[in-house]
Amino acid sequence: MPDKLKEREPLWREEFSVFKADERYVNRRQLAKFLTLGSLGMFAGNLWILVRGWFRKAPEFARSVVAKAGEIPIGGVKLFQYPKEGEQCIMVRTAEDSYVAYSQKCTHLSCAVYYEHELNRLECPCHQGYFSIHDGSVLQGPPTRPLPRVVLERKGEDLIAIRMEPEA
Amino acid sequence: MPNHSNPQQNRGLTAIDAVTSLLVMVLIVQIWLLSATLDNYLAGHTEAALPAAIVSGLLCATCFALYRFVRHVDREARG
Q1: If residue A31 lies in a helix (H) or strand (E), which one and from where to where?
Q2: Domain residue spans in chain A?
Q3: Cα of A67 to nearest chain B Cα, Å
Q4: Domain A64-165 has CATH 2.60.40.1260
């Protein structure tokens, strides 16, 4: 009886009957399968963006008086919320009769940007992202997209925010 | 125990390794494509979405063809 037991394959080999060469094959095949499914996922992501783009509605923005002309000095800033409560924006008076306004949320990781008067640019202090004060484009740093611009209209002494470009 | 390290199997493994490398490269291109399209979409530009989806679909089809090739080689090499 003990001799018979010796002749038999060990129990672990019966239960895990995978040869090394076969195992390498299985691993490679499974990796190829995983990569192919990953590729399918990427394609699905692109399709999702395409469909979202097709069904994207142009948002409607309310007109809102955000400041009075002359309320802030040249080179000064004013913070306001637009288009909704809690969506912080920054307005800068760049010249006697020139005002610009942008979303204050950095397009990198949403830190609040501030106006750097000496260098005439907007700066994100979290990762040193810099934006042009003229059009909100990225000058330097990790952000890849410009700051959404608040389009302003002047009516008498009122500075009115009419929409965001591109939509926030 | 049968010998699993014959030349045919080794050739098969080399072919599968080559195809896996190609799959990795295709996937990297697709990841780049998706991140670029998403970045454009978030910036309000949707013009790039259609060409990106078409190219991504073609790359995905390439991946499936390569995967079929892996299965075919695998089956042949192992008998």
Answers
A1: helix A20-54
A2: 2-54, 64-165
A3: 27
A4: no
